[in-house]
Amino acid sequence: MNKAVIHIKRFFILLAIQVIVLNNVQISGYLNPYIYILFIMLLPPKMPKALVLTMAFIMGFTVDIFENSYGIHAAASVLIAFIRPLALSLVSVKGGEDLEAIGIKQLRFARFFTYSGILCLIHHFTLFYIEAFRLNEFIDTFVRALSSTLISLLIILLMESVRSNSHK
Which pLDDT value is given to residue 136? Predict the structure, then answer.
């Protein structure tokens, strides 16, 4: 199947899961899983940076439309798209230059966990601190971002494990 079609399908599947299911999940105001960022994480490392940033903006802006959140998802998504090559260079042997795709199968579990953990943590902290936009809620926002990162990371790892096992 054409690689562009795979990315388009992934875009709509992750968007649907996020908007229909996960946007309705909020446990005591602290756990907000955001797995749509898996789309940005799994984009090919050799894809032009301008295209990755554009696709991240489109994904984040689409989530913003459904959440009425005024661009905070777009901002956080573009930030992780910008930082993605650095995170990949931290976990990959040759900085990601040798990889055709990103996933558990290519990076192995520990490296994929580190890669997705870095990006998920940055995304969630950016998202929640922009949303709060005041320092008097620093600890509350910190706990919310950290707990949401953990649940999001768990779901992302589960989804990626299922995806990589289905390709064998």
Answer: 84
Return the sign of the alpha-carbon dihedral for residues 46, 54, 39, 132: positive
Identity of residue 91: V
The candidate with the shortest Cα–Cα distance to 159, out of 65, 22, 56, is: 22
What is the per-residue pLDDT for 72? 95
DSSP-assigned states of every residue in 14-43: HHHIIIIIGGG--BTTTB----TTHHHHTS
Alpha-carbon dihedral sign for residues 152, 121, 150, 27? negative
pLDDT tens digits, 104-139: 888 888 899 999 999 999 999 999 999 888 888 888
Residue 167: band (very low, low, confident or very high) from pLDDT cuts 50, 70, 90: low
Alpha-helix residue ranges (DSSP H) falling in 17-137: 38-41, 49-67, 72-91, 104-132
- pTM higher than the cut 0.85: yes
Pick among 2.60.40, 2.40.160, 1.10.1760, 1.10.20: CATH of 3-166: 1.10.1760
